[in-house]
Design goal:
- The protein is globular.
- The protein is about 50% helix and about 10% strand.
- Strand 1 and strand 2 form a beta hairpin.
- It has a five-stranded mixed β-sheet.
- Its EC number is 4.2.1.1.
- It comes from Durusdinium trenchii.
- This is Carbonic anhydrase.
Length: about 325
């Protein structure tokens, strides 16, 4: 933002060295203005003449300090009534007293929250006893339900800069319904029905351990080695290995294991969406009526960004499914 403001002041096409130099000055005044805008005690001291806040730039080459004086916006900022910086201000808590959030608005909130998180400008996290009490007394009304992976590197509330009450989170290894059909589908039906949530996000992430393990299982089977299923994790990986097989077929014979994993992560997101549409008549009806949207995404562990994938390509055909319950509880 500082560089953008500097460019606007110098004009598009300014030389890089001049832009950098001016950005340093803009940043000095930005810091001064932040102090004046968000600290009532500092504003009062400046107003009374007991304090001055001035800026300067130290030039490494000459050892000289260029004294820049007060912010040009000081008089305007002294009229501010803000008492806390944005990172310390409590965001509002969603409860049943708030209006239902339409799918497109919920998606916008997710995107904006992830943008804040990715650039290190998150504002969520401050919650008071009154807010907690409101969630108990008035009830929850999350704007989005998220099926995500049980991975400590992908904390979903944090990734979307969400407050308690904003999102309804379901997690398991691999963000899948393969071995948790009843609990995942039933919990989601509760959220869309009793809580009136209108957006569902199925979120995978890069470097997913479950998909890596499933891909390794698939490659072992392809090499003629029979997988040993001795624990629940083994069964999960075998169940997901078909996705690695599909990814391999779509990519072709020359695909590397890393490429298969990356593509299988995407296929798995849509596979979970398809499962929900195929085996929940309640979810299908809401999607068909336009009341609910189910979309996919992939969280990049390195960049912090979510790639929003949209709806499943199979949605139109799946909403005509006749299945009423997942296979495990049918």
């Amino acid at each position: 933002r500082v560089a953008q403001q500097a460019e606007e002041e110098l004009g598009v096409g300014a030389e890089t060295d001049k832009l950098i130099s001016h950005s340093v000055k803009v940043n000095v005044f930005t810091s001064i203005e932040f102090l004046l805008k968000y600290s009532e005690p500092l504003r009062q001291l400046v107003k009374s003449g007991n304090l001055e806040i001035q800026g300067g730039v130290y030039h490494l080459a000459t050892g000289r300090v260029e004294f820049m004086g007060r912010s040009p916006r000081q008089a305007q900022l002294l009229a501010s009534d803000s008492s806390l910086p944005p990172s310390l201000q409590a965001l509002p808590i969603r409860t049943t007293t708030d209006k239902t959030v339409p799918p497109k608005e919920a998606l916008r909130l997710l995107k904006e929250g992830n943008d804040r998180f990715a650039v290190g400008a998150a504002v969520a996290g401050k919650i008071s006893s009154d807010m907690r009490k409101a969630l108990v007394d008035e009830g929850q009304a999350p704007h989005t339900a998220i099926i995500g992976c049980a991975d400590s590197r992908a904390p979903l509330e944090t990734v979307f800069d969400a407050m308690p009450g904003d999102i309804f989170v379901l997690r398991n290894a691999g963000n899948t319904c393969t071995h948790s059909e009843g609990s995942m589908v039933g919990s989601l039906e509760f959220c869309l029905g009793a809580l009136n949530t209108k957006m569902v996000m199925v979120l995978g992430h890069t470097a997913c351990g479950a998909i890596k393990g499933a891909t390794a299982t698939y490659l072992h089977c392809k090499a003629g080695k029979k997988p040993q299923v001795t624990k629940a994790l083994d069964a999960l990986l075998v169940g997901l290995s078909s996705l690695a097989s599909n990814a391999s077929e779509e990519l072709g014979a020359n695909a590397t294991e890393q490429q298969i994993v990356a593509h299988a992560i995407k296929l798995n997101v849509f596979h979970t969406i398809d499962f929900l549409l195929q085996y929940s008549s309640m979810i299908r009806e809401k999607v068909a009526a336009g009341e609910v949207e189910i979309q996919g995404g992939i969280y990049d562990l390195e960049t912090g960004r979510v790639e929003f994938l949209g709806e499943s390509p199979n949605q139109a055909s799946l909403i005509t499914s006749g299945a009423a319950m997942p296979p495990s509880i049918a």
